Amino acid sequence: MNKPAEAGAVAPASYAEQFLYIDGEFIGADARPGQDVRNPATGQVIGRLPHATPDDLQRALKAAERAFSTWRTSSPLERSAILRKVGELSRQRAADIGRNITLDMGKPLAEAIGEVKSCADHCDWHAEEARRIYGRVIPSRTPNVRQMVLREAVGVCAAFTPWNFPFNQAIRKIAAAIGAGCTIVIKGPEDAPSAVVAIAQMFHDAGLPKGVLNLVWGVPAEVSQALVTSPIVRKISFTGSVPVGKQLAALAGAHMKRVTMELGGHSPVLVFDDADIERAAKLLAGFKFRNAGQVCVSPTRFYVQEKAFDRFMDAFVKHAKSIKVGDGLDPEASMGPLAHERRIPAMEAFVEDARRRGARIEAGGERIGTVGNFFAPTVIAHAPDDSLVMTSEPFGPVAPCTPFKTLEEVLQRANSLPFGLSSYVFTTSTKTALATQNGIEAGIVNINHFGQALPETPFGGIKDSGIGSEGGSETFDGYLTTKFVTQLD
Fold this sequence. Notes:
CATH class of the largest domain: Alpha Beta
Number of strands: 20
Helix content: 25-40%
């Protein structure tokens, strides 16, 4: 059985002070309402997060509106230079930022630092693409008419980001908005706030004008209501659960505001019997239990062709059992705790439902210890298609596996849910690879490796998994309007 580090094995670490950031000013707790920040590995309170008052929210909106009047016409070279500087600062400060992410979110320190460093590439990418926001000239039907298409910043944006990749999810939205010439008010994750405060500090230090970026915290429903319904805000970007995303999209639609929604998934994995089974099992185990399975694109439904099922399960279970679970600051830990205590009973419910329906628990299946939110890497064999874990996104270290017979059958089963974010295929057949990339209903299809979420590639889902894409040449689409100009000489 995996077990977390013994009490006292990891030295206590100090946690950065947390702030609001409004109109170029960092605002501490003072007499404001707020909430405690807890370390999910120990349950201990490590900090205090100030909440924005209604006046704070209005001040942030007014600051963003005022800043937009000049930032919208700023030079792309100026935007590019600031984004590049933030990329440099991200690499320089990655160790400290990553350590605070581990403290408030729980992921292993190496993963947290890696998240920050990799996101420096997002800054660099947006810095370059911001210099290439082009319009076009359309040939006219008569010689004395000129026709042009202009791309212009949409306006003030409101963004809402989750706790599982607190740096990554925030920097994507901030870099795209700022690079396009928009201003932004962002509400990050109250449970894991340090990464977004660090981002605000870096943009501040990079010389971003006051009001272009504003950071607020508070009761999510209250903050989202204030920001989404404000006439100042013209664009909403949200990453999070499907139910909340639908609520925000409906609210935004009532006010005719454009949205980008990156919502939940339930990513199918198709392992064909001609694949390199040992390699597939090793890669999938590492990716499945990364960040304790708290990844929107985590592989979550494993369909393995029946001739290879037993071989795959032997290798997959072996790798799952070898994972070291512990405090993210323990250098030997390769998987940390779940971010929230409420996720423990959720994992137990997935396991119990599968067991009751006749599935076998091949590894894990239970909480580890009584201190911290640790849950063992869990592998379930022969989970029925109608079981809870096969129909609801687990968002945790639980991997249900089931056999299939034919390509047609597995495509039907993979597409049977309303989700469509990411998917994974392992095969050595080019014919099968083509059939699956055409047949899977998802915004992302990874074949024989994990190649998603790079700055230069689009990231987004279909069906209930969202609207729009982040990254790639599509990265600014949600932050720009199209204006057609026709002029008679």
